[in-house]
Amino acid sequence: MKPRGGGAWSLLCVLAIAGALQAAEPGDEQAANSGAADPSNSTLPVAVSGLPLELESLPLSNQRNGREIYESFRAGLADPTCDASATSARWKKHFGHAPGQLARPNDDLLPLFGYVVDALRQADLPTEFALIPFVESGYKPGARSASGPAGLWQFIGVTARNHGVAMRAGYDGRLSPVDSTQAAVRYLKTLHGMFGGDWRLAVMGYNAGEYRILQSMRRAGMNAQNAKPAQLPGLSGITYAYVEKLHALACIFQQADDREEWMRTLDRNVPRLAPQALPGDVASLDEWAGRQGHDSSLLKRLNPALAGGISRSGKPLRVLAPSSAGAATVARQAGDSPALVAPPPAKSRKAMVASTTAAAGSHTVKRGESVWTIARRYGLPPQELLARNGLATSTVLQPGMVLKLEGDDSGK
After folding, report:
1. For a tag site, which of 242, 326, 340, 351 has the least CB within 10 Å?
2. Alpha-carbon distance 300 to 297, whole Å?
3. Average pLDDT over residues 304-331
């Protein structure tokens, strides 16, 4: 597939989509092919203008519960219910293994999925987009195709450079989940605005190039408000299938949470991953892992761009790692996930009681606690706990926050 686009498209103003649909000219076709081994896969199209999404601004916490990640994903879906008529049985079967991947305790996928969900929620984007790496790379940061695409989002070289992803001798930013996710989220945010907030049109533009979708819409006499993605003329079957794949994946997950056994597998703590600056005096991931108390093998799996050595060329580097630092250690007990960061040393029982019940009907958040773990402790639905405290679903709790456990009508 040859994605379309060009430098001219960046002049489109998201707020002027109606005018763009009437007057936009097709961009120049990129010279490079994706060349993916699976012809149904795609690569990210052309460059996007604008300031990068500051993923570092995401609030940090040491650990999170897997169910919290999943609930954030579900809460962020543009289509929260499964449309059986729009769901391909072929793709549901093809991706039927995805829930099992999140359930595996010794897999990095769940915390990595949580990192992508966080980035999308922070950017106010539908979490359907968090399913794209399932299609592109199977959520493997080091995935490579023999024909060129690489990384979590399977960029081709020219596309990566157009998106500001660094590629130089000794460093391939496509293999950095920080660099590539920043670029992907930034582009998806632009497409989502360009196509009137329709996630299906956005991913079709992601797959085929935004100008190809705009041309198809004009030919059909459609605009961003009334377009029917499945009825757009003149597009590749791969582009139509891309929407079907993501919708099938969303349906698979929505149906999986009806199974209590599967939900219990998500009820485990995993590290909250966050981008962290790599100090200039660090010569290897092993060295930095030792300083921070992280598992070196985990860091290498998450950061294949740096696993073979660190090449700076005067440029700052970021590493994706558990947000805990310093004295944090990696759990090594039998049955524990190698990605699981051990919680801080336990306080005395007296101190725990004092911090847990700062006031009647309240709870003071401790390090490592999440909405899910606190709600479960007090027998509350997580959404109700958030509502009682006026918090959004994407809120990350910080140690010291005091949460109300009673509603306003309780008299407390």
Report:
1. 326
2. 5
3. 72
